[in-house]
Design brief:
This protein is mainly alpha-helical. It has one domain: Arc Repressor Mutant, subunit A (Orthogonal Bundle). Helices cover 66% and strands 11% of the residues. The protein has 7 helices and 2 strands; from the N terminus they run αααααββαα.
């Protein structure tokens, strides 16, 4: 019987949602909403708000709200881009890095509880599969 791609997608999304929901109290204790965490986690790789919105598939208006909130909380600061003085780039503060890292530890621990249900060789295979799925299409 062929594997249904839509069903796999749904199962993957459900797993990620369950893990995020299980960590919502830890995120809240850090002063983060779930979507703010995703923004915080991605700032280093995508430091420009428009790029960040595209990467996370968040409307630009919503990204503005999240960035303002993260700036107000002291997790992110805006800097003028030396290469283009018209642009601002986002930079994590020490507090932002600490909050991101603590949130990642909580998420990793929750995900690890779920991964513990499968054999180590299956975890290795899952990693291989996920890396293959993340490679750009040829």
């Amino acid at each position: 019987m062929p594997v249904d791609a839509a069903q796999l997608w749904t199962m993957n999304h459900r797993l990620l949602t369950v893990v995020m929901n299980a960590c919502s109290a830890e995120l809240a204790a850090l002063g983060l909403e779930t979507k703010e965490f995703f923004v915080l986690a991605e700032v280093a790789a995508s430091p420009y708000p428009a790029e960040l919105a595209a990467t996370l598939m968040i409307p630009k208006a919503s990204m503005t709200v999240y960035v303002r909130s993260l700036v107000a909380k002291g997790f992110v600061r805006r800097e003028i881009d030396d290469a283009d003085l018209r642009r601002h780039r986002l930079v994590l503060t020490a507090e932002g890095e600490a909050a991101r890292d603590r949130a990642l530890v909580a998420l990793a621990a929750e995900f690890d509880r779920r991964l513990a249900r499968i054999a180590p060789r299956d975890r290795t295979e899952l990693r291989r599969i996920l890396l293959a799925l993340l490679e750009p299409a040829q």
